[in-house]
Design brief:
five-stranded parallel sheet; Sigma-54-dependent Fis family transcriptional regulator; Rossmann fold; 18 helices; 16 strands; nucleotide-binding
Length: about 450
Protein backbone atom coordinates (compact mmCIF):
# COMPACT_ATOMS: atom_id res chain seq x y z
CA UNK A 1 0.00 0.00 0.00
CA UNK A 2 1.30 3.46 -0.98
CA UNK A 3 -0.32 6.41 0.84
CA UNK A 4 -0.03 10.19 0.46
CA UNK A 5 -0.29 12.32 3.63
CA UNK A 6 -1.23 15.98 3.08
CA UNK A 7 -1.02 18.16 6.21
CA UNK A 8 0.62 21.50 6.96
CA UNK A 9 1.73 20.38 10.44
CA UNK A 10 5.14 18.72 10.25
CA UNK A 11 4.73 16.72 13.47
CA UNK A 12 1.49 15.17 12.16
CA UNK A 13 3.09 14.24 8.84
CA UNK A 14 6.13 12.66 10.49
CA UNK A 15 4.19 10.80 13.19
CA UNK A 16 1.74 9.41 10.64
CA UNK A 17 4.54 8.27 8.33
CA UNK A 18 6.27 6.56 11.24
CA UNK A 19 3.07 4.82 12.36
CA UNK A 20 2.24 3.69 8.82
CA UNK A 21 5.77 2.35 8.43
CA UNK A 22 5.33 0.20 11.54
CA UNK A 23 2.24 -1.29 9.86
CA UNK A 24 4.23 -2.04 6.70
CA UNK A 25 2.57 0.77 4.74
CA UNK A 26 4.72 2.89 2.43
CA UNK A 27 3.96 6.63 2.37
CA UNK A 28 4.94 10.04 1.05
CA UNK A 29 3.90 13.46 2.36
CA UNK A 30 3.15 17.00 1.25
CA UNK A 31 2.81 20.22 3.25
CA UNK A 32 0.45 21.99 0.84
CA UNK A 33 -2.22 21.15 -1.68
CA UNK A 34 0.00 22.37 -4.48
CA UNK A 35 2.79 19.97 -3.42
CA UNK A 36 0.26 17.14 -3.20
CA UNK A 37 -0.89 17.71 -6.78
CA UNK A 38 2.70 17.64 -8.06
CA UNK A 39 3.24 14.29 -6.29
CA UNK A 40 -0.03 12.82 -7.59
CA UNK A 41 0.91 13.78 -11.14
CA UNK A 42 4.13 11.77 -10.77
CA UNK A 43 3.08 8.84 -8.57
CA UNK A 44 0.08 6.60 -8.00
CA UNK A 45 -1.25 6.35 -4.43
CA UNK A 46 -3.61 3.72 -3.09
CA UNK A 47 -5.14 6.31 -0.73
CA UNK A 48 -4.78 9.97 0.28
CA UNK A 49 -4.98 11.33 3.85
CA UNK A 50 -6.00 14.95 3.34
CA UNK A 51 -6.28 17.79 5.88
CA UNK A 52 -9.20 20.11 5.19
CA UNK A 53 -7.43 23.32 6.26
CA UNK A 54 -4.26 23.88 4.26
CA UNK A 55 -2.36 27.07 3.41
CA UNK A 56 -3.18 28.21 -0.11
CA UNK A 57 -5.15 25.49 -1.87
CA UNK A 58 -7.60 23.92 0.61
CA UNK A 59 -8.16 20.23 1.18
CA UNK A 60 -11.60 20.58 -0.41
CA UNK A 61 -10.03 22.06 -3.54
CA UNK A 62 -7.47 19.25 -3.70
CA UNK A 63 -10.32 16.74 -3.40
CA UNK A 64 -12.17 18.44 -6.25
CA UNK A 65 -8.99 18.27 -8.35
CA UNK A 66 -8.70 14.53 -7.62
CA UNK A 67 -12.31 13.97 -8.67
CA UNK A 68 -12.00 16.08 -11.82
CA UNK A 69 -8.90 14.19 -12.95
CA UNK A 70 -10.55 10.81 -12.41
CA UNK A 71 -7.76 9.70 -10.05
CA UNK A 72 -8.65 6.39 -8.40
CA UNK A 73 -7.02 7.14 -5.03
CA UNK A 74 -9.74 7.26 -2.32
CA UNK A 75 -9.41 10.14 0.18
CA UNK A 76 -9.77 10.26 3.97
CA UNK A 77 -10.31 13.82 5.21
CA UNK A 78 -8.84 15.09 8.50
CA UNK A 79 -10.73 17.87 10.26
CA UNK A 80 -10.81 19.76 13.55
CA UNK A 81 -13.95 19.56 15.71
CA UNK A 82 -15.27 22.85 14.34
CA UNK A 83 -14.84 21.68 10.76
CA UNK A 84 -17.21 18.71 10.84
CA UNK A 85 -19.78 20.38 8.52
CA UNK A 86 -16.93 20.94 6.04
CA UNK A 87 -15.93 17.28 6.37
CA UNK A 88 -19.51 16.21 5.66
CA UNK A 89 -19.48 18.45 2.58
CA UNK A 90 -16.23 16.78 1.50
CA UNK A 91 -17.93 13.38 1.75
CA UNK A 92 -20.61 14.66 -0.62
CA UNK A 93 -17.81 15.75 -2.99
CA UNK A 94 -16.28 12.28 -3.16
CA UNK A 95 -14.21 11.73 0.00
CA UNK A 96 -14.60 8.18 1.31
CA UNK A 97 -14.28 8.91 5.06
CA UNK A 98 -13.11 11.47 7.61
CA UNK A 99 -11.46 11.69 11.04
CA UNK A 100 -11.51 14.51 13.58
CA UNK A 101 -8.39 15.69 15.41
CA UNK A 102 -7.06 14.32 17.64
CA UNK A 103 -7.61 10.81 16.28
CA UNK A 104 -6.37 7.34 17.13
CA UNK A 105 -3.80 6.18 14.52
CA UNK A 106 -5.14 2.64 14.88
CA UNK A 107 -8.54 3.86 13.67
CA UNK A 108 -6.86 5.46 10.66
CA UNK A 109 -5.16 2.17 9.79
CA UNK A 110 -8.50 0.34 9.94
CA UNK A 111 -10.11 2.89 7.64
CA UNK A 112 -7.18 2.80 5.20
CA UNK A 113 -7.20 -0.98 4.93
CA UNK A 114 -10.98 -0.98 4.49
CA UNK A 115 -10.76 1.56 1.66
CA UNK A 116 -8.06 -0.36 -0.17
CA UNK A 117 -9.96 -3.65 0.27
CA UNK A 118 -13.14 -2.08 -1.09
CA UNK A 119 -11.17 -0.81 -4.08
CA UNK A 120 -9.76 -4.29 -4.63
CA UNK A 121 -13.31 -5.69 -4.68
CA UNK A 122 -14.42 -3.03 -7.15
CA UNK A 123 -11.51 -3.98 -9.41
CA UNK A 124 -12.47 -7.64 -9.08
CA UNK A 125 -16.06 -6.94 -10.13
CA UNK A 126 -14.93 -4.75 -13.03
CA UNK A 127 -12.46 -7.42 -14.14
CA UNK A 128 -15.23 -10.04 -14.07
CA UNK A 129 -17.41 -7.81 -16.26
CA UNK A 130 -14.65 -7.37 -18.84
CA UNK A 131 -13.47 -10.98 -19.05
CA UNK A 132 -15.54 -14.02 -20.02
CA UNK A 133 -16.20 -16.68 -17.37
CA UNK A 134 -14.04 -19.73 -17.97
CA UNK A 135 -13.68 -23.26 -16.67
CA UNK A 136 -11.11 -22.92 -13.89
CA UNK A 137 -10.52 -26.49 -12.69
CA UNK A 138 -7.51 -28.53 -13.68
CA UNK A 139 -9.00 -31.94 -14.51
CA UNK A 140 -7.05 -35.12 -15.10
CA UNK A 141 -5.20 -37.92 -13.30
CA UNK A 142 -2.86 -38.99 -16.10
CA UNK A 143 0.91 -38.94 -15.45
CA UNK A 144 1.39 -35.84 -17.63
CA UNK A 145 -1.33 -33.96 -15.72
CA UNK A 146 0.13 -34.98 -12.37
CA UNK A 147 3.50 -33.67 -13.54
CA UNK A 148 1.84 -30.46 -14.71
CA UNK A 149 0.20 -30.03 -11.31
CA UNK A 150 3.58 -30.41 -9.58
CA UNK A 151 5.08 -27.73 -11.84
CA UNK A 152 2.20 -25.40 -11.01
CA UNK A 153 2.85 -25.92 -7.29
CA UNK A 154 6.50 -24.96 -7.77
CA UNK A 155 5.79 -21.67 -9.51
CA UNK A 156 2.53 -20.61 -7.81
CA UNK A 157 4.23 -19.14 -4.73
CA UNK A 158 6.71 -17.14 -6.80
CA UNK A 159 6.08 -14.01 -8.86
CA UNK A 160 8.11 -15.07 -11.90
CA UNK A 161 6.76 -14.34 -15.36
CA UNK A 162 5.33 -17.52 -16.92
CA UNK A 163 4.92 -18.51 -20.58
CA UNK A 164 2.37 -21.24 -21.36
CA UNK A 165 2.71 -23.01 -24.69
CA UNK A 166 0.64 -25.67 -26.39
CA UNK A 167 -1.81 -26.36 -29.16
CA UNK A 168 -5.05 -24.42 -29.39
CA UNK A 169 -7.69 -25.74 -27.01
CA UNK A 170 -5.31 -27.42 -24.53
CA UNK A 171 -6.50 -25.27 -21.62
CA UNK A 172 -3.84 -22.61 -21.24
CA UNK A 173 -6.23 -20.22 -19.51
CA UNK A 174 -7.28 -22.98 -17.11
CA UNK A 175 -3.62 -23.53 -16.17
CA UNK A 176 -3.04 -19.78 -15.79
CA UNK A 177 -6.04 -19.57 -13.46
CA UNK A 178 -4.78 -22.58 -11.51
CA UNK A 179 -1.41 -20.86 -10.98
CA UNK A 180 -3.31 -17.81 -9.72
CA UNK A 181 -5.57 -19.85 -7.40
CA UNK A 182 -2.63 -21.63 -5.78
CA UNK A 183 -0.63 -18.43 -5.27
CA UNK A 184 -0.56 -16.05 -2.27
CA UNK A 185 -2.71 -13.42 -4.05
CA UNK A 186 -5.56 -15.70 -5.07
CA UNK A 187 -8.11 -13.32 -3.49
CA UNK A 188 -7.05 -10.61 -5.94
CA UNK A 189 -8.39 -10.39 -9.52
CA UNK A 190 -7.52 -12.82 -12.28
CA UNK A 191 -7.82 -10.78 -15.48
CA UNK A 192 -7.66 -12.55 -18.84
CA UNK A 193 -7.36 -10.86 -22.22
CA UNK A 194 -7.17 -12.46 -25.66
CA UNK A 195 -4.70 -10.34 -27.61
CA UNK A 196 -5.91 -11.83 -30.88
CA UNK A 197 -9.49 -10.81 -30.14
CA UNK A 198 -8.86 -7.07 -29.74
CA UNK A 199 -8.47 -4.68 -32.64
CA UNK A 200 -4.99 -3.13 -32.81
CA UNK A 201 -6.35 0.40 -32.35
CA UNK A 202 -8.14 -0.54 -29.10
CA UNK A 203 -5.49 -2.77 -27.57
CA UNK A 204 -3.38 -0.07 -25.91
CA UNK A 205 -6.41 1.55 -24.29
CA UNK A 206 -7.69 -1.84 -23.10
CA UNK A 207 -4.39 -2.78 -21.47
CA UNK A 208 -3.27 0.59 -20.09
CA UNK A 209 -6.55 2.49 -19.74
CA UNK A 210 -7.23 6.08 -20.72
CA UNK A 211 -8.16 9.45 -19.28
CA UNK A 212 -11.27 11.39 -20.23
CA UNK A 213 -10.68 13.13 -23.55
CA UNK A 214 -7.55 11.11 -24.37
CA UNK A 215 -8.97 10.44 -27.84
CA UNK A 216 -12.20 10.87 -29.78
CA UNK A 217 -14.90 8.93 -27.98
CA UNK A 218 -13.10 8.78 -24.61
CA UNK A 219 -16.03 10.28 -22.70
CA UNK A 220 -14.86 9.04 -19.30
CA UNK A 221 -11.78 7.76 -17.54
CA UNK A 222 -11.30 4.00 -17.88
CA UNK A 223 -8.78 1.91 -15.93
CA UNK A 224 -6.77 -0.58 -17.99
CA UNK A 225 -6.50 -4.30 -17.38
CA UNK A 226 -3.03 -3.93 -15.82
CA UNK A 227 -4.63 -1.62 -13.27
CA UNK A 228 -7.68 -3.81 -12.67
CA UNK A 229 -5.48 -6.83 -11.98
CA UNK A 230 -4.07 -5.07 -8.92
CA UNK A 231 -1.88 -7.53 -7.05
CA UNK A 232 -3.50 -10.46 -8.82
CA UNK A 233 -2.72 -11.96 -12.23
CA UNK A 234 -2.93 -10.59 -15.76
CA UNK A 235 -3.16 -13.36 -18.36
CA UNK A 236 -2.14 -12.35 -21.89
CA UNK A 237 -3.46 -15.04 -24.22
CA UNK A 238 -2.24 -15.28 -27.83
CA UNK A 239 0.76 -13.07 -27.03
CA UNK A 240 2.19 -13.90 -30.45
CA UNK A 241 -0.57 -11.78 -32.04
CA UNK A 242 0.60 -8.59 -30.31
CA UNK A 243 1.58 -5.79 -32.75
CA UNK A 244 5.25 -4.80 -32.71
CA UNK A 245 4.50 -1.26 -31.49
CA UNK A 246 2.69 -2.62 -28.44
CA UNK A 247 5.42 -5.21 -27.81
CA UNK A 248 7.80 -2.32 -27.13
CA UNK A 249 5.40 -0.86 -24.55
CA UNK A 250 4.82 -4.23 -22.90
CA UNK A 251 8.58 -4.72 -22.63
CA UNK A 252 8.87 -1.36 -20.87
CA UNK A 253 6.09 -2.34 -18.44
CA UNK A 254 7.87 -5.59 -17.56
CA UNK A 255 11.16 -3.74 -17.07
CA UNK A 256 9.90 -0.74 -15.11
CA UNK A 257 6.78 -2.28 -13.50
CA UNK A 258 4.65 0.79 -14.16
CA UNK A 259 2.17 2.06 -16.74
CA UNK A 260 0.64 5.35 -17.76
CA UNK A 261 -2.93 5.68 -19.00
CA UNK A 262 -3.45 7.16 -22.46
CA UNK A 263 -3.68 10.90 -21.93
CA UNK A 264 -2.38 10.56 -18.37
CA UNK A 265 0.53 12.32 -16.68
CA UNK A 266 1.21 10.08 -13.68
CA UNK A 267 2.76 6.62 -13.55
CA UNK A 268 0.80 3.77 -11.99
CA UNK A 269 2.74 0.87 -10.44
CA UNK A 270 2.16 -2.60 -11.86
CA UNK A 271 1.92 -5.18 -9.08
CA UNK A 272 0.20 -7.97 -11.01
CA UNK A 273 1.84 -11.21 -12.00
CA UNK A 274 2.09 -11.59 -15.78
CA UNK A 275 1.31 -14.93 -17.43
CA UNK A 276 1.45 -15.16 -21.23
CA UNK A 277 0.32 -17.92 -23.55
CA UNK A 278 0.70 -18.85 -27.20
CA UNK A 279 -0.01 -21.69 -29.60
CA UNK A 280 2.69 -20.39 -31.93
CA UNK A 281 6.44 -20.97 -31.98
CA UNK A 282 7.70 -17.65 -30.64
CA UNK A 283 11.32 -18.53 -31.45
CA UNK A 284 10.32 -18.81 -35.11
CA UNK A 285 8.50 -15.48 -34.90
CA UNK A 286 11.64 -13.94 -33.37
CA UNK A 287 13.79 -15.26 -36.23
CA UNK A 288 11.26 -13.87 -38.73
CA UNK A 289 11.35 -10.44 -37.08
CA UNK A 290 7.70 -10.66 -36.00
CA UNK A 291 8.34 -10.85 -32.25
CA UNK A 292 10.91 -8.97 -30.20
CA UNK A 293 13.71 -11.15 -28.88
CA UNK A 294 14.13 -9.08 -25.70
CA UNK A 295 10.40 -9.37 -24.94
CA UNK A 296 10.53 -13.12 -25.58
CA UNK A 297 13.18 -13.56 -22.90
CA UNK A 298 11.22 -11.32 -20.51
CA UNK A 299 8.04 -13.39 -20.73
CA UNK A 300 9.84 -16.74 -20.90
CA UNK A 301 11.34 -16.78 -17.40
CA UNK A 302 9.45 -20.02 -16.66
CA UNK A 303 8.01 -22.03 -19.54
CA UNK A 304 5.23 -24.60 -19.17
CA UNK A 305 4.23 -26.77 -22.14
CA UNK A 306 0.70 -28.17 -22.09
CA UNK A 307 0.08 -31.66 -23.52
CA UNK A 308 -2.50 -32.17 -26.29
CA UNK A 309 -5.54 -34.25 -25.38
CA UNK A 310 -4.40 -37.17 -27.56
CA UNK A 311 -1.40 -37.59 -25.22
CA UNK A 312 -3.63 -38.01 -22.16
CA UNK A 313 -6.55 -40.06 -23.44
CA UNK A 314 -7.10 -41.61 -20.00
CA UNK A 315 -8.35 -38.20 -18.84
CA UNK A 316 -11.13 -38.08 -21.46
CA UNK A 317 -13.86 -39.85 -19.38
CA UNK A 318 -13.31 -37.51 -16.41
CA UNK A 319 -13.15 -34.46 -18.66
CA UNK A 320 -16.23 -35.54 -20.60
CA UNK A 321 -18.26 -36.05 -17.44
CA UNK A 322 -17.31 -32.60 -16.16
CA UNK A 323 -17.85 -30.79 -19.46
CA UNK A 324 -21.13 -32.57 -20.14
CA UNK A 325 -22.51 -31.58 -16.75
CA UNK A 326 -21.60 -27.94 -17.28
CA UNK A 327 -22.97 -27.91 -20.82
CA UNK A 328 -26.28 -29.43 -19.69
CA UNK A 329 -26.65 -26.82 -16.94
CA UNK A 330 -25.78 -24.02 -19.35
CA UNK A 331 -28.31 -25.24 -21.92
CA UNK A 332 -31.04 -25.83 -19.34
CA UNK A 333 -31.07 -29.59 -19.88
CA UNK A 334 -31.18 -32.40 -17.28
CA UNK A 335 -28.03 -34.24 -16.27
CA UNK A 336 -26.88 -36.79 -18.86
CA UNK A 337 -24.70 -39.88 -18.62
CA UNK A 338 -22.39 -41.33 -21.27
CA UNK A 339 -22.81 -44.94 -22.35
CA UNK A 340 -19.69 -47.19 -22.32
CA UNK A 341 -19.84 -47.44 -26.12
CA UNK A 342 -20.01 -43.66 -26.47
CA UNK A 343 -17.14 -43.27 -24.02
CA UNK A 344 -15.00 -45.63 -26.10
CA UNK A 345 -15.83 -43.63 -29.22
CA UNK A 346 -14.75 -40.45 -27.45
CA UNK A 347 -11.47 -42.02 -26.32
CA UNK A 348 -10.60 -43.38 -29.77
CA UNK A 349 -10.63 -39.94 -31.40
CA UNK A 350 -7.49 -37.76 -31.71
CA UNK A 351 -9.07 -34.30 -31.09
CA UNK A 352 -7.03 -31.86 -33.20
CA UNK A 353 -8.97 -29.12 -31.38
CA UNK A 354 -8.13 -30.66 -27.97
CA UNK A 355 -10.33 -29.98 -24.92
CA UNK A 356 -12.23 -27.22 -26.69
CA UNK A 357 -13.20 -29.65 -29.45
CA UNK A 358 -14.28 -32.26 -26.87
CA UNK A 359 -16.51 -29.62 -25.30
CA UNK A 360 -18.05 -28.78 -28.69
CA UNK A 361 -18.60 -32.48 -29.44
CA UNK A 362 -20.45 -32.95 -26.15
CA UNK A 363 -22.60 -29.86 -26.67
CA UNK A 364 -23.67 -31.17 -30.07
CA UNK A 365 -24.32 -34.58 -28.53
CA UNK A 366 -26.70 -32.97 -26.04
CA UNK A 367 -28.63 -31.47 -28.95
CA UNK A 368 -28.72 -34.78 -30.85
CA UNK A 369 -29.58 -36.91 -27.80
CA UNK A 370 -33.23 -37.97 -27.38
CA UNK A 371 -32.93 -39.39 -23.86
CA UNK A 372 -30.68 -38.77 -20.88
CA UNK A 373 -27.82 -41.02 -22.01
CA UNK A 374 -25.31 -40.04 -24.68
CA UNK A 375 -24.96 -42.90 -27.20
CA UNK A 376 -22.40 -43.43 -30.00
CA UNK A 377 -24.80 -42.17 -32.68
CA UNK A 378 -25.15 -38.87 -30.78
CA UNK A 379 -21.44 -38.19 -31.12
CA UNK A 380 -20.35 -36.31 -34.23
CA UNK A 381 -16.53 -36.35 -34.16
CA UNK A 382 -16.08 -33.59 -36.70
CA UNK A 383 -16.30 -29.85 -36.11
CA UNK A 384 -18.19 -27.65 -38.54
CA UNK A 385 -16.52 -27.21 -41.90
CA UNK A 386 -15.44 -23.69 -43.01
CA UNK A 387 -18.65 -23.55 -45.05
CA UNK A 388 -20.62 -23.92 -41.85
CA UNK A 389 -22.74 -27.07 -42.22
CA UNK A 390 -21.72 -30.04 -40.07
CA UNK A 391 -20.74 -33.13 -42.06
CA UNK A 392 -23.08 -36.09 -42.40
CA UNK A 393 -23.43 -38.16 -39.27
CA UNK A 394 -23.28 -41.89 -39.06
CA UNK A 395 -25.62 -43.76 -36.81
CA UNK A 396 -29.30 -44.26 -36.27
CA UNK A 397 -30.61 -40.71 -36.72
CA UNK A 398 -31.79 -38.95 -39.86
CA UNK A 399 -29.38 -36.64 -41.68
CA UNK A 400 -30.12 -33.61 -43.85
CA UNK A 401 -32.67 -34.50 -46.52
CA UNK A 402 -33.75 -37.69 -44.74
CA UNK A 403 -37.56 -37.85 -44.80
CA UNK A 404 -37.78 -40.51 -42.11
CA UNK A 405 -38.47 -37.85 -39.46
CA UNK A 406 -36.57 -35.83 -36.89
CA UNK A 407 -34.85 -32.46 -37.23
CA UNK A 408 -32.63 -31.73 -40.22
CA UNK A 409 -28.99 -30.81 -39.77
CA UNK A 410 -29.95 -27.26 -40.73
CA UNK A 411 -32.45 -27.19 -37.85
CA UNK A 412 -29.84 -28.55 -35.47
CA UNK A 413 -27.24 -26.06 -36.66
CA UNK A 414 -29.68 -23.15 -36.35
CA UNK A 415 -30.54 -24.22 -32.80
CA UNK A 416 -26.88 -24.63 -31.84
CA UNK A 417 -26.00 -21.16 -33.16
CA UNK A 418 -29.04 -19.57 -31.52
CA UNK A 419 -28.25 -21.13 -28.13
CA UNK A 420 -24.57 -20.16 -28.34
CA UNK A 421 -25.51 -16.55 -29.14
CA UNK A 422 -27.92 -16.55 -26.22
CA UNK A 423 -25.26 -17.86 -23.82
CA UNK A 424 -22.86 -15.10 -24.91
CA UNK A 425 -25.47 -12.30 -24.93
CA UNK A 426 -25.26 -11.94 -28.71
CA UNK A 427 -21.45 -11.76 -28.88
CA UNK A 428 -20.71 -13.37 -32.25
CA UNK A 429 -16.97 -13.76 -31.73
CA UNK A 430 -17.38 -15.74 -28.50
CA UNK A 431 -20.26 -17.80 -29.88
CA UNK A 432 -18.20 -18.69 -32.96
CA UNK A 433 -15.25 -19.71 -30.78
CA UNK A 434 -17.50 -21.97 -28.72
CA UNK A 435 -18.90 -23.63 -31.85
CA UNK A 436 -15.49 -24.07 -33.43
CA UNK A 437 -16.25 -21.94 -36.49
CA UNK A 438 -14.93 -18.62 -37.76
CA UNK A 439 -16.57 -15.28 -37.03
CA UNK A 440 -17.23 -14.81 -40.75
CA UNK A 441 -19.04 -18.16 -40.88
CA UNK A 442 -21.30 -17.39 -37.92
CA UNK A 443 -22.20 -13.98 -39.39
CA UNK A 444 -23.22 -15.67 -42.65
CA UNK A 445 -25.23 -18.30 -40.78
CA UNK A 446 -26.98 -15.65 -38.67
CA UNK A 447 -28.14 -14.01 -41.90
CA UNK A 448 -29.09 -17.35 -43.48
CA UNK A 449 -31.22 -18.43 -40.50
CA UNK A 450 -32.66 -14.97 -39.76
CA UNK A 451 -31.08 -14.78 -36.29
CA UNK A 452 -29.97 -11.16 -36.55
CA UNK A 453 -32.50 -9.72 -34.11
CA UNK A 454 -31.02 -9.39 -30.63
CA UNK A 455 -27.44 -10.12 -31.64
CA UNK A 456 -24.57 -7.68 -31.39
CA UNK A 457 -21.79 -7.17 -33.88
CA UNK A 458 -19.28 -7.05 -31.02
CA UNK A 459 -15.82 -8.45 -30.51
Amino acid sequence: MHVLIVDDERNIRESLRKYLSLEGIDSNSAETGEEAIILMEKEHFDAVILDLKLPGMSGQEVLEWIQARGILSPAIMISAHGEIPDAVEALKSGAKDYLTKPFDPAELIIKLKSLVENKRRENLLEAEKRTAPQETSLIGKSPVMKELSLRIDKIADTDVTVLLTGESGTGKEVVAHEIHKRGPNSADPFVAVNIGGIHDTLMESELFGHEKGAFTGAAARKPGLFELAGRGTLFLDEIGEMPMALQIKLLRVLQERKIRRLGGTSDIPVNARIISATNKNLETLVSEGKFREDLYYRINVFKVSLPPLRERREDIPLLAENLLGKAAARMGKPAHTISPEAEKKLMDYSYPGNVRELENVLERALIYCDGNEIRPEDIDLHTMEPGGVPPQRTGGKPAAGDVSGGPSLEDIEKKAISEALSRWDGNRTKAADELGISRKTIINKIKTYGLEDGTEDSE
